[in-house]
Design goal:
This protein is an alpha/beta fold and 502 residues long. The chain folds into two domains: 274 residues, Aldehyde Dehydrogenase, Chain A, domain 1, CATH 3.40.605.10; 192 residues, Aldehyde Dehydrogenase, Chain A, domain 2 (3-Layer(aba) Sandwich), CATH 3.40.309.10. Helix content is 37%, strand content 21%. The chain has 18 helices and 22 strands. Helix 3 crosses helix 9 and helix 12 packs across helix 13. The radius of gyration is 24 Å and the shape is globular. The N and C termini lie far apart (53 Å). The structure holds nicotinamide-adenine-dinucleotide. Nicotinamide-adenine-dinucleotide binds next to helix 10 and helix 11.
């Protein structure tokens, strides 16, 4: 990985400021739909460039190219040839580290200090991580007795599933897109990616990388556009798509599941959350504050795994609230290039309106606004951006929408609790089940509580500590399926049992 070097070139002058393009069958194209829209930078409201919107024709062409690559050169490569090529993709992302970094920060407004440590290096790592899994995982064999005494032998074969549609969100655009594309390609599939309409740049740039390292045309395709009645829907409904892997909101996940039901295509869904943080009185306060600062405010609160409900045991409640408030108020809001920036803007104006509507609802519901609650005063050159204040509330009822609905902003509600049993009930009392963070120095308590939480991922004394070999995904309305390590085999391959009578 290239080390981040400050000071960096101003994003105002970045060559990443340009029009996006579809990437179909190894070629960049504006398509034939004649439709496009403006890509707006959330830092200051400036126009980054134009984005073409794919219609049915572009989606058809991308799916056709993906199928041809599968039946052609890509499908004929050996596992070693394939994984070597993906290692070259990872190396080339790192060679072009600054290009990816600038494109990602322009699209999202996130601090470069964050994207240079998480988004871009993890985006590259997703192409190498699955190499070992592909090379080393075996399948099952069952010798079987038969009445004639000669027996039979069962063994399992795994084949690529086929053409995979990858639909991704805007909060960690490169990282979450390659989290799907990496294993899909490593396991021999081809992909058509529909990145979020708000963050088209890094998916487009990845097309240049694919061509540079010689990935056969049609293996990686990108179509831009919106969800419903646009590129997303055309892609998920396309009969040439063999599986849909999606990261985004629970509402869109429901629509995608419906679309995939035609033709009985499998889905892998990583959806929304309303994640609890549970802070016991026997925690290490420094660790709990540092972790909750990140889990509530990192990426301007736009992390699916983030904590929006914090439960703090009563003896340390006042101290915890005061220290989290001090941390939130010390955070600098500013430009991505500034190494002192701790928080960027929200993704766009529409999302800011949504987050501010929850800020208003909290006040209407009688919350105590511990800090924030509105729009910060920004310098004139940033006034056109989608800025909001990091916000902490106390005092809301457990059934208030601010406590029950995903806001996806830099905010959390903190509530006191008394007993372990009570807090487990509070944490589980939600339709969601993505992640939880538990803060305690009592080892037995940590294991006991973790086993009772209805979530896909439970962190103890940490947050967002990710080993890519582990299962990732949500319970309840937070998703279907698990990806990561060997778990990715379930979605990206189809298994055939071969039974041979001897
Ligand atoms: P979103 O659901 O609005 O959009 C995600 C993607 O789906 C976009 O590319 C969008 O164009 C597309 N889309 C929307 N409707 C579609 C449809 N009917 N058919 C096909 N495609 C469609 O989500 P978002 O606002 O981009 O992202 C934020 C949400 O994502 C939050 O709810 C967050 O919790 C969730 N998220 C979950 C995870 C996870 O791993 N569980 C990770 C990141 C984000």
């Amino acid at each position: 990985m290239n080390a981040p070097s400050h000071p960096r070139r101003s994003l105002a002058e970045s060559p990443a400021r340009r029009d996006a393009a579809h990437f179909i069958n190894g070629e960049f194209t504006q398509g034939t739909s004649g439709k496009s829209y403006d890509n707006i930078c959330p830092i200051d409201g400036s126009r980054i460039g134009a984005v073409p919107e794919a219609g049915q024709a572009e989606v058809d062409a991308a799916v056709k190219a993906a199928r041809a690559a599968l039946d052609g050169p890509w499908g004929k490569l050996t596992v070693v040839e394939r994984t070597n090529m993906l290692a070259a993709v990872a190396a080339e992302i790192n060679n072009r580290f600054d290009d990816f970094l600038e494109a990602e920060c322009l699209d999202t407004g996130k601090p470069m200090s964050l994207a240079s440590h998480i988004d871009i290096p993890r985006g590259a790592a997703n192409f190498t991580m699955f190499t070992d899994v592909v090379k080393t995982v075996s399948t099952e064999t069952f010798p079987m007795a038969t009445p004639d005494g000669k027996g039979a032998l069962n063994y399992a074969l795994r084949r690529p599933r086929g053409v995979i549609a990858v639909i991704s969100p805007w909060n960690l655009p490169l990282l979450l897109m390659t989290w799907k594309v990496g294993p899909a390609l490593a396991l021999g599939n081809t992909v058509v990616v529909k990145p979020s309409e708000s963050t088209p740049l890094t998916a487009t740039l990845l097309g240049e990388v694919m061509n540079k390292v010689g990935v056969p045309k049609g293996v990686y395709n990108v179509v831009h556009g919106f969800g419903g009645n646009s590129a997303g829907q055309f892609l998920t409904q396309h009969p040439g798509v063999n599986g849909v892997t999606f990261t985004g909101s629970t509402k869109s996940g429901e629509q995608i599941m419906l679309a995939a039901s035609h033709g009985i295509r499998p889905v892998s869904l990583e959806l929304g959350g309303k994640n609890p943080g549970i802070v016991f009185a026997d925690c290490d306060m420094e660790k709990a504050i540092e972790g909750t600062m990140r889990s509530a405010f990192a990426n301007c609160g736009q992390v699916c795994l983030g904590t929006e409900r914090v439960y703090v045991q009563r003896p340390i409640f006042d101290e915890f609230v005061a220290r989290l408030k001090a941390g939130a108020e010390a955070m600098k809001l500013g430009r991505p290039e500034d190494p002192a920036t701790g928080m960027g803007p929200l993704i766009h104006e529409t999302h800011r309106k949504k987050v501010l509507s929850y800020y208003a609802k909290a006040v209407e519901g009688g919350a105590t606004v511990v800090t924030g609650g509105g729009v910060p005063d920004m310098p004139a050159d940033l006034a056109g951006g989608s800025w909001v204040q990091p916000t902490i509330w106390t005092g809301l009822a457990d059934d208030h929408p601010v406590v029950t609905e995903e806001i996806f902003g830099p905010c959390c509600h903190i509530r006191p609790f008394d007993t372990e049993e009570e807090v487990i009930h509070l944490a589980n009392n939600t339709p969601y089940g993505l992640a939880a963070a538990v803060w305690t120095e009592n080892v037995s308590r940590a294991h006991r509580v973790a086993s009772k939480l209805e979530v896909g991922i439970c962190w103890v004394n940490s947050w967002f500590l990710r080993d890519l070999r582990t299962a990732f995904g949500g319970a309840k309305a937070s998703g279907i399926g698990r990806e990561g390590g060997v778990h990715s085999l379930e979605f990206y391959t189809e298994m055939t049992n071969v039974c041979v009578k001897l």
